[in-house]
Amino acid sequence: MLLRPTWDDHKVVGMYAGRIVLGVGLLMAIPLVTSLVFGEWDTAADFCIGLLASLFTGLCLQVVFWTRKRLARRHGLVTVAIAWLLGTLVGTIPLALSGHYGSYADAVFDVMSGLTTTGLYLIQDLDHIANGLSMWRFVLTFAGGQGIVVIALTFLFRGSGAVYQLYSGEGKEEQLLPNVIHTARAIWVISLGWLIAGASLLSVTGLTLGMRPDRAVLHGIWMFMGAFSTGGFAPQSYNVIWFHSSVYEALCVVIFVAGSLNFALHWAVWHGWRGELVRNIETRSFASTLAVLSVAAAWALADTGIYGDWVVLFRKGFYQLVSAHTTTGFATIYSRAFVTQWGAGAMLITMAAMAIGASSCSTAGGIKGLRVGLITKSFFGEVRRVISPESSRVTVRYHHIRDQILREPVVRSVLTIAVIFITLYAVVTAAGVFAGYPVDQAAFEGISAASNSGLSCGLLSPSSPDLLKVVYVAAMWLGRLEFIAVLALAGWVWAAVKGR
After folding, report:
1. Stretch (H or E) spanning 399
2. Given this model, what pLDDT does residue 364 score?
3. What is the pLDDT of residues 134-175, one digit of tens each?
4. How far, in whole angstroms, is CA 197 from its chain's centroid?
5. Is pTM beyond 0.90 here?
6. Domain extents in the chain
7. What are the angstrom distances between the C-alpha of 125 and each of 107, 130, 138, 237, 387?
């Protein structure tokens, strides 16, 4: 029997969603201060309006829906899905007021792209936007990489076992520490530690390239946020190409590969367990697929003859591939080069890298290396069972933070998510074809959106059909939350209408 949610159930969802929206709103203080420092008064006014709107929305939700009812798992999943939508809508206000978007819907697209660490964008005249506006784009993607729920848990919640339901609803299941609040704070300690180191190195590199000190520092901070969050946003329309520096490119690779790793792996290395880097099934899976795809991409690109020597081929080909595999979206070639120069074979390999993605419980998207590794382990385990005597008992083991046995429920779970991801890739590809684009370009752009990668072949623009933009927004949202929270919200709505 399908039970209809009670008013008390709705109050739990509303109250906790309000607290998360409040957290998103408080982040606007960072671009607001940036605007004031640089004397961007119109932009500062836009952020004041956005900040007040988000604080009003968050506080009203908490007051109207205040309750002492305990947060259950279904509440947590629905809360996360709703909070991401509300956070996107209130976070859009300063962008929509900036005058750099053709419509409010285009601004919503960019905020969802930022929060989901996708990196596709519809902003116009990117090279000349205000510093405060640019800061907001990167704060969104940096915060989205850690998770807006993680932000709220860090600053706005007290320790409670119930809030684990919120944490897991955002696609994270591994706790670094026994207490989920402490886990959220540990994630931010890791991220801020990397921020200090990475932004400093990029800023110094920018100074050596002849940039003004203020621009070098701002670009260093922004490029770090875009890289570590595997978000792909860049302060200039030419992305990483704008810097014309192999050193800058290499630093970004180190940062976004680090950002694509499981936070639990960071925590292990932080505490001296460096052997985890080579023992963990995720890092082994990522290294294996990256090596295979790199060789295949090099072969395909060499066949086209577009790059004169192996050094250039490596710099161009490997960079795009590792950017795709970590779902970062940084590029050192122009978007249309994927279509006009790379050819169908290299594009297909890049799509495979985006579709797989990097690590679970990281800033990356896609199916995830852990699932690919477990599916592979399960496959070879089945082969061993088939060829072993009937009386033998085959046990499949793997190492992920600790030694574990691969059990049937885990295999079912990873296969289910993988199949749903593949289905989503097919749906967004079909949407692009329906909108009139060639199938290879529709697949490239659609997989990029659904896997939260952000690499573009030049298909998406402000003039793209509105329905296709909506499909991409939904795909980014679904991919980032790994479906469960969104499906829970759909079930909640259905139960509210049809339940008893």
Report:
1. strand 397-400
2. 85
3. 999 999 999 888 777 666 666 656 555 556 667 666 666 666
4. 21
5. yes
6. 7-259
7. 13, 11, 17, 8, 62
